Amino acid sequence: MKLKTRIIISFFIIVLEPLLFTGIAFWAFTQYQFSMIEKQYGIEDPTYESLTNMAEVVNHLTNEIIENIRVVAQTTPSRFEDIVYLDDLNRELQEMHSYILVQENDRITYYGCETYPQELVEKLGKFQDFDASTNAGLYLGGRVQVLVKQVTFETSQIKDGSVFIVSNILETLPQMKDLFKNMLVTVVVILVTTALGLTWWIYRGVIAPLDKLRMATQKIKSGDLNFTVSSEGVSEIADLCQDFEEMRQRLKENAEEKVEFDRESKELISNISHDLKTPITAVKGYVEGIMDGVADTPEKMDRYVRTIYNKTNEMDHLINELTFYSKIDTNRIPYTFNKLNVEDYFEDCSEEVGLELETRGIELVYANYVEKDVMVIADGEQIRRVIHNIISNAIKYMDKPKGIIQIRIKDVGDFIQIEIEDNGKGIAAKDLPNIFDRFYRTDSSRNSSKGGSGIGLSIVKKILEDHGGKVWATSRLGIGTIMYFVLRKYQEVPMK
Q1: 341 & 465 share domain
Q2: Domain check: are 107 and 192 in the same one?
């Protein structure tokens, strides 16, 4: 889910959810309280509008009692002088948050409330002339908010008597107060619950993933890349987590590559130092021999000089190979790819190689099984280097009196396969998988008389991989080795 969508949803939840649940709670509480009011007070079919008019409700509650008092006033008014009767009547009224007050000739003779507000008594005196024959009451506001009903009576001793029913409007219908209290608590609970839910939702979708990203950055800062960042949270942050995880993986790969590069660099320096040390030591020895007069004959001098020359050629060849490999390993060799006719190109290569082999007494057998018009896309100079390195390696380990090297060109579908076979000493099975690794030698000692840098075949592999081809070998000890490599054929794509 996108962050924008989550924000919109949160807005509607904040607005609508409290309203919805508040409405539901209000309806439920109202129905419950109405049922309690109807059961307790006998008010039939109460409504919110009717119950909010407290004066009307209070007037309804005391109708039955005021009718009974009116009957007593007409039949036995002397009962209003009976304290026991008045106490019983007052207790009944107290259940309705009301009480009675008896006035005889402008004098209060009975007061059914513990407190005696003078303000109420003063106000009652002003309403002596209202129609007491009805069930209607008079609302007295101010500090004392009551509903007063009056019944007049007369006895032989009392000419002007009144019985007042005083109802405290603020104390009537506690269910309505409970309703408002419950609604207030419910609204608070709904708002708090909504806020907590949205806070958790936002935290889970936004804050928590960002906190994980922050911790991840701290780990990267400290150099720790051995962790994973899971994609979670809103869509934008999930995408950010995914990008961050890819960045971490790339940083880890770069770090591992750097470690491997540093290791290989140290190995390279060590190998260069070792490979240069041997011919330099030999050159130094022969030069000292000349300086000390050991080469005291023209024949010795000629042999010493020739040896020095050969050793310097070895060093020059080694340095050239190392320089070339460093360039090709860092992709700094600009290949020049061209369409090459297979028949013509490899025939020229075989003639060039054949002259060198002839001087070494090695027979070259060349065979081409590819049709004349077959083409490949390749850098001719670099493919020559491939062939030269393979054949040089074969010559280096030739141990037969009559050396034979065969070059075969074959068509294998979408590729041209070149096979270079020798009858040398072969390669052990344990060494065969590693012969294309940099600085790998099958000799147990780097001081082998065969010489070589150990990177000739690794250069072959790199060049062919850059051409979209590959190289491999098969070998049998004492019989010889076959090197294979393939190049993709050039094919015209028809235009539609």
Answers
A1: yes
A2: no
In a domain, 108, yes or no: yes
pTM over 0.85, yes/no: no
Q: Are residues 143 and 233 in the same domain?
A: no
CATH number of residue 127's parent domain = 3.30.450
Tokens representing 129? Answer: 């002339």
Residue 453 lies in a domain: yes
So what's the pLDDT on residue 411? 93
Same domain? 319 vs 346: no
* One domain for residues 395 and 357: yes
Asked whether the beta carbons of 325 and 331 are under 8 A apart, the reply is no
When computed from its CA atoms, the radius of gyration of the chain, rounded to whole angstroms, is 57
Q: Could you read off the pLDDT of 163-196 as tens digits, one per residue?
A: 888 887 666 555 556 667 777 777 788 778 877 7
Rounded CA separation 172/141 (Å): 15
Return the pLDDT at 37: 58
Q: Please give the Cα distance from 394 to 451 (Å, whole number).
A: 13
Tell me the residue type at 455. I
**What pairs with residue 483 in β-bridges?**
420, 473
395 Cβ partners below 8 Å, 6+ apart?
A: 357, 360, 362, 403, 405
Q: How many domains does the chain have?
A: 4
Are 388 and 466 in the same domain? yes
Domain that holds residue 372: 334-488
Confidence (pLDDT) at 446? 42
Tell me if 281 is assigned to some domain.
yes
Say if residue 230 is in the same domain as residue 303.
Answer: yes
What is the average pLDDT across 87-102? 85
